[in-house]
Amino acid sequence: MEHVAGPIHRVPLGFVAAYLVRGQDGEPPVLIDTGIPGRENVILAAARELAPATARTPIGHVLVTHCHTDHAGSLAAVVARTSARVHAHPLDAAVIRSGGPQPPAIPEPRLLRMLGPLFGRIGRAELEPAAVDVEVHDGSPMPGGLRAIHTPGHTPGHLSFFWPGDGGVLVVGDAASRMFGRLGLAVVNSDPATARRTFARLAELEFATACFGHGPVLRGRANAAFRRRVEHLAAR
């Protein structure tokens, strides 16, 4: 587990990451995403390191950035062992509740061309259905002192989460990627044009640190790096 800033910690789960936010006022941690199926033990072990000794459960809430199986694959298992409340956008909630079908996964033509089909298959893999307790909209206040931002394009109901401390920390899920250290769009998107507009909108925000579903944390004027990437994409 890697400390990011303030209450936020990164939990590596192979090629994808989840994030834990230390709870406020003695509350258990808040989890953002759950990785692929079978990662619940890793997540729960990390959560117990952050949870207060008096907490009735190691995780109080799960915030789902989107419905792809590499981000919600262990959701049902985590909920079964913690009774955590699940938060997701209405446009992705139906997929989470039913297990599918997944939104389209269109590979980016210039971004990791060879990996696009692979990530498309992973994202479209069967998802174990899970309950969604709270449907989240753009601007909704979230547990852990976070704020939700609707960031569609990768999926219709994709969410990012913003924490205002330490210059701002933005957990972008797959609204952006930093695979192999390269900042840009996700490898696949259900609506590539919307994904580009979302990336540009994120670049307008003020944040010092960016946390990704895929790739390492970007620290120090992270929004400036997003703005440079927007300029590069516009020039192509």
Give an overview of the whole structure.
The protein has one domain: Metallo-beta-lactamase, Chain A, CATH 3.60.15.10. It is 28% helix and 21% strand. The chain contains seven helices and 15 strands. It has helices spanning 40-50, 69-72, 75-82, 90-98, 116-124, 192-203, 222-235, and strands spanning 2-5, 8-12, 17-21, 30-32, 61-63, 85-88, 106-107, 134-135, 141-142, 146-150, 159-163, 169-171, 188-189, 209-211, 218-219. The strands form three sheets. The protein has a seven-stranded mixed sheet with strand order 1-2-3-4-5-6-8. The chain has a six-stranded mixed sheet with strand order 9-10-11-12-14-15, with no helix packed on it. Strands 7-13 form a two-stranded antiparallel sheet. A hairpin with a 3-residue loop joins strand 9 (141-142) and strand 10 (146-150). Helix 6 (192-203) packs across helix 7 (222-235). The protein is globular. The relative contact order is 0.15. The model has no long low-confidence stretch (mean pLDDT 92).
Adjacency order of strands in the biggest sheet:
1-2-3-4-5-6-8
User: What percent of residues adopt helix (DSSP H or I)?
Assistant: 25-40%
Number of domains: 1
Sheet having the most strands: 7 strands, mixed
- CATH class descriptor name: Alpha Beta
CATH architecture: 4-Layer Sandwich
Structure classification: alpha/beta
> What would you give as the CATH superfamily?
Ribonuclease Z/Hydroxyacylglutathione hydrolase-like
Number of helices: 7
**Total number of beta strands:** 15
Q: Please give the radius of gyration in angstroms.
A: 16 Å
Global shape: globular
Measured distance between first and last alpha carbons? 38 Å
SSE ordering: EEEEHEHHEHEHEEEEEEHEEH
Instruction: Provide the β-strand percentage band.
Output: 15-25%
Low-confidence stretches: none
CATH topology: Metallo-beta-lactamase, Chain A
Mean pLDDT: 92
